């Protein structure tokens, strides 16, 4: 089959690789009908996530048709049309039983790698390095899905791939980011980053009752998309976002702040430049300027929600502001399984049409071009869907 494979920093290729096979009686094989490039994939593309190996298959946002099932798969049938959560969960461990699916104890066979760094390991992830399990991803023609009865969500007739594809990651991720803000009537939510996750966080904040959402970015097409959702906007290259947020909130600050950017944030001040240098030379693993801004901008007693990916260690985080302003910080890989059915119902109800975020549709063979335009924000690219 054809698959998008990682061969080093800024080097992805569409290779011919062996078809996946059933390895465990709880597996299913999916013929992929739609897949997508995620902002998190750019961290792999840029070489900032360790334990990648040449030839690894990328991709964790994918869906398709079940073509084979293992002997112990009972709920999912051959021919079912399904979406696949990017987090892999067993359904039976302490964490799965508590609806904390991305913390599953049993799906990362390389947990020891992360235990050295984090103390404990989260769940395995599709297409996201060997420290996250080494699972082949879904930017391919076929994929093996472990624990098929636990993860796969069957899609009802009448919905297109593009309406439901983002249930695999970015819609639940944006929704969980907003839910973590504990939004109350009248609240103002600030969202740093108007990429795909930020766009879903903006719309989710409104769905959950926010009165105002303020979106912060520098790319006009992303800010325009946020404005179309009802958000007020700040272009941080044209004004100081912290001062602007103070002015827009009467000096109090937003009730909650969402960092939908993560480890490859950009900034305009000297500290941001220094972060870039430190990351380049691996003195610091992540660039945390957005996290700093969100902590400082958030009102006293507020919440900082972090759906943006951070991988390791960061410098100069204003922990004093966290403590002395009594802030709550909530984060985590998304518990996708928790949100599949509720958000599918949101789509069926017409509360949201997730296709709004798609700007580019490409065949799988053009994935390298898709990565380039997505990384460099060319052609007004916000979200790329690939068709195997």
Radius of gyration: 20 Å
Oligomer: single chain
C-alpha termini separation: 10 Å
Percentage beta strand: 15-25%
Overall geometry: globular
Question: How much helix is in the residues?
Answer: 25-40%
Enumerate how many helices there are, as a single number. 13
Stretches where pLDDT is under 50 for at least 5 consecutive residues are: none
The biggest beta sheet is recorded as: 7 strands, mixed
Please identify the structural class as seen in this structure. alpha/beta
The residue-averaged pLDDT reads: 95
Number of strands: 18
Keywords: Metal-binding, Oxidoreductase, Zinc
Domain Alcohol dehydrogenase-like N-terminal: 25-150
Protein name: Zinc-dependent alcohol dehydrogenase
Family: Belongs to the zinc-containing alcohol dehydrogenase family.
Task: Provide structural commentary.
By secondary structure, this protein is an alpha/beta fold. 29% of the residues lie in helices and 21% in strands. The relative contact order is 0.15. It is an enzyme of class 1 (oxidoreductase). Pfam families: ADH_N (PF08240), ADH_zinc_N (PF00107). Residues 25-150 form the Alcohol dehydrogenase-like N-terminal domain. Belongs to the zinc-containing alcohol dehydrogenase family.
């Amino acid at each position: 089959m054809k698959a998008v494979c990682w061969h080093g920093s800024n080097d992805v290729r569409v290779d011919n690789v062996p078809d996946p096979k059933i390895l465990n009686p709880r597996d299913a094989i999916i013929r992929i009908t739609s897949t997508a490039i995620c902002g998190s994939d750019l961290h792999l593309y840029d070489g900032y996530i360790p334990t990648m190996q040449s030839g690894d298959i990328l991709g964790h946002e994918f869906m398709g048709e079940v073509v084979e099932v293992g002997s112990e798969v009972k709920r999912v049938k051959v021919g079912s049309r399904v979406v696949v959560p990017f987090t892999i969960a067993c359904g039976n461990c302490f964490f799965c039983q508590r609806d904390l699916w991305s913390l599953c104890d049993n799906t990362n066979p390389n947990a020891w790698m992360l235990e050295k760094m984090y103390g404990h390991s989260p769940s395995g992830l599709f297409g996201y390095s060997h420290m996250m399990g080494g699972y082949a991803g879904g930017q391919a023609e076929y994929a093996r899905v472990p624990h098929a009865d636990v993860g796969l969500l069957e899609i009802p007739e009448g919905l297109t791939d593009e309406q439901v594809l983002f249930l695999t990651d970015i819609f639940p991720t944006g929704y969980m980011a907003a839910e973590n803000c504990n939004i109350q009537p009248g609240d103002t939510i600030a969202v740093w980053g108007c990429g795909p996750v930020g766009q879903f966080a903006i719309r989710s904040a409104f769905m959950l009752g926010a009165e105002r959402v303020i979106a912060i970015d520098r790319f006009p097409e992303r800010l325009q998309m946020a404005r179309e959702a009802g958000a007020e906007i700040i272009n941080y290259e044209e004004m100081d976002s912290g001062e602007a947020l103070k002015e827009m909130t009467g000096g109090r600050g937003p009730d909650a702040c969402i960092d939908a950017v993560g480890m490859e944030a950009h900034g305009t001040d000297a500290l941001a430049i220094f972060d870039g240098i430190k990351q380049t030379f691996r003195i610091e693993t992540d660039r945390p300027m957005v996290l700093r801004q969100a902590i400082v901008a958030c009102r006293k007693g507020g919440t900082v929600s972090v759906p943006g990916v951070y991988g390791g260690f960061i410098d100069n985080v204003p922990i004093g502001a966290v403590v002395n302003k009594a802030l709550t910080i909530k984060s985590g890989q998304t518990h996708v399984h928790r949100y599949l059915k509720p958000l599918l119902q949101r789509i069926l109800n017409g509360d949201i049409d997730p296709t709004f975020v798609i700007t580019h549709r490409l065949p799988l063979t053009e994935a390298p071009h898709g990565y380039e335009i997505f990384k460099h924000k060319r052609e007004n690219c916000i979200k790329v869907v690939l068709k195997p």
